[in-house]
Amino acid sequence: MYIKNDEEHSLYPTSLVPKMLAKASIVLLSTLAVMMPAAAQDNDANADLEEVVVTGLRGNLQSAQKMKLDAEQIIDSIVADDIANLPDRSVTETLQRIPGVTIDRFITRGDPEHLSGEGTGVAVRGLPQVRGEINGRDGFTANGGRALSFEDVPPELMAGVDVYKNPSADMIEGGLGGTVNLRTRMPFDIDERLIGVTLTANYQNFIEETTPGMSAIYSDRWDTGIGEVGFLIDVAHSELKGRIDVIFNRPYFPYDSNGDTVNDSYIPRGADWRTERTERERQGLYTALQIRPNDNIEYFLTVFHSRYDFTWDEDAMFVSNDPYDLVAGPDTVYDSNGIFQSGTLTDPSHGGIPFGSDIRISNRESITTDVSTGVEWQINSSWSFNSDLQYVKSTTDALDATIAAGVQVPDMFVDASGGIPRISTDSDFLANPDNYYAAFTMDHEEDNTAEQLAVRADAEYTFSETPGLNSLKFGVRFADRDYETINTDYNWKPVFQPWMQWWAVPGGVPLPNISQLNLGNLVTVNRFDNFFRGDLPIPGSVVAFNRSLALGYPDTFIQVHQAAAPLYDCCYFTIDPDTGERVTTFEPTLINPSHVSIQEEDVSSAYLMLRFGWDDIGLDGNVGARWVQTKNLATGYVRSPGVLAAEAIRPSFMNPPQLAEFSETYTHTLPSLNLRWKITDEFLARFAYSKAIARPNVFDLRSSVQLYVDKNDGAPDNSPLLTDYHGSAYGGNPRLRYMEADQLDLAFEWYYSDIGSVWLNLFSKDISNFIRVANFTETYYNFDYVIQRPMNQEKADVKGWELGWRHFFDFGFGMEFSYTNIDSDTTVAASSIKYDTDGSPFNADAMPYEGLSENSYSAIFMFEDDLISARLAYTWRDEFLLSIGANGYNGTFDGIRWDIPVYQDDYGQWDGSVFFNITEQYSIGLEANNLTNEKLNTIQKQNIPGNHIASATVQDTRYALTFRASF
What we know:
By secondary structure, the chain is mainly β. It is built from 6 helices and 55 strands. The radius of gyration is 30 Å and the shape is globular.
């Protein structure tokens, strides 16, 4: 519920108010036990039973295999070891070991310039629309998306991870690619008291930093006057730091190489480089209480809390030039098609190539708390009754602050003939602070909150005398989720720029340098020591503002702009009436009500599912349907532009924020069928059909729009004529329809031993309403804007197959292999077609679905005996489309709006661990990620210029020395 104040154009969120009453109760939840299988054996009629428990790597594989065999759906699982440690440093990196699951390496897929240092975004069968659950209930992160950010979740708290490839009617809707369920331990999963402690020292060898990690678990159960009571508490804390070096080769543009005014070749806009440092801190707390008054009823209460704090900063040298002003030197080499290979680039019209050197610091802190309670009741031999109540709150706060200097680089030599570009510049010139001017500041803030209250009620009737029918299950679920998304966009403000000369600052002379602003003591020289681990020559030294200036936002930003005010000829200052001194007009974009986007989402669902089976022919399964109604209310603002290059026309665009409110109701019926045919005791086949939906991301559904105005090419600087300007805009689309898919699965599984199996899965997804960004022309305040909004496309077809094998030999050696092949076809709307730098259109229908690799595989080798437990894993995926027209790969020149598709290149990585069992209670081990220091490349694909490396990246190998104790 929100109160509108149209006069002040503000929104005031009130507390989440429950709007639901559930008339029926509850659900049969999946068993959340760690499932350490045991075999019991009778030696003679009077002998005591001896329990043989299989643990460690062998036990993990055995448990995962049994879960796959027993499941009604097609699933794959990873089970943690004895004291709840997954075999990787993050849940995301664990998931990449599962067939059909791939992960990203970038902070976001829409920003192919910044790696994260750890795995990020998860895709199942090539689709990023993955539903995240914690113990079968909703999990999400308030980061503008809809799913749970798996990298936020401490892996130390997990007992296992299950990936459901196809749903059944009793599963919550929303996973188009699949559903990932994170399982925690419950007290009754453990027979006796358990105390476990893990201590870790992480060493990152590129940044040369050591960081700590720890986790601890306590669990016990008691017989009391109210029945059996179990309690568990699990805590975790870990830190990582990293260094990432990147070198870029920018998009290629048409070029006249012989001066006859005909473009006969292509040259790159330039090349640049940067060093990024990352710092991640992750904390978690999980508690669980179980009460079992008798054998028929059980109550539970769980609290799950995680905090994820990720900061990255960079020293970057980046081109900020007009590519059509570049001149290629006489040493330039072209291939037979006129494509630049190597040579010297310069820009004589500006006295050198305009570059920017920035210090940028970005921080994201996400906190998620999940409190859930419920009951499981076996009423009698026929009826069971389950229900749960869940409250989730997630917050994300983010600040991105950039302060940049500028420099006119006389020239630069670029060699792109060998793939990874090599750059050389005049390093002495670049190391001189007097050659730099204060260029711009940029700030961006986010403050997001999401809350959900959900109640679920299920009942199941078991047939006892009806052949072929096992049970009838039905239930309802009501969920209210409220989002408050606050996003200030990116507030780029110039200090000095070449285009400001002759009107805002004097022309014909160099721009005022940093010393003239009395800021010379606030810069440092970065010489990029050990750049790219010494594999590439150092491109050049860079003068940049101190890190403290970015950290000091907003006061330090005001300080820099104020230092420039006395040097302007006009426009970027006012006169203080009391002192007569110039005062900067710069204002940081501090959060205000116009930045708030509100979404209220009410979901009502009900399902009916029949379980059936005929033992004589070995056929069983379930069939059912889920009915879902979603009501969505979106409220936000249309915000007028902050005109950057046109102070003279600012009054024409000083309009108050305009309220924008939309509401929609969607209803879906989702049938599903899961069949399992046990052809023999070892061999079975599965068939599944389902209809699935995925709701658009919260950020895509926002009704907010940000307007911008820029000068037309060739128009006079600071012209007062509106016809000399064009409008652009970015916004969400609250009218987006939900993505839908008809899904088919056919699987064959052969279980030839308790830890030996082979499987083949064939799958097909026919998707409608998938989403890509499109361009439209819309009119606001009597001025036309070309706006970029997400838009539903026509269709996408995704087809593929998965092949897997696992085996553990009696002599202690085990192996697990999986391979996935996926193909996709897309049909997009005309407004979503993108263009190359020469104005030629890209064949959008020929582009694959974003995030989808055609081939991927994983190989894990294990050895275990009484003393040693070792594991070596390799995961690989081939190239996939990251984004189209991301930052650094889009622009408008000579009237052409160009958006370049960028792909992540093939990438594979080795990870490993070895643990030594000191005693049954104590072990010590060494773990490593990215053992071979792999480089990660991105590829830009253009029509005539062809494919070129867009960026090449190196980062840390991470080592962890770990001590474990359990009692």
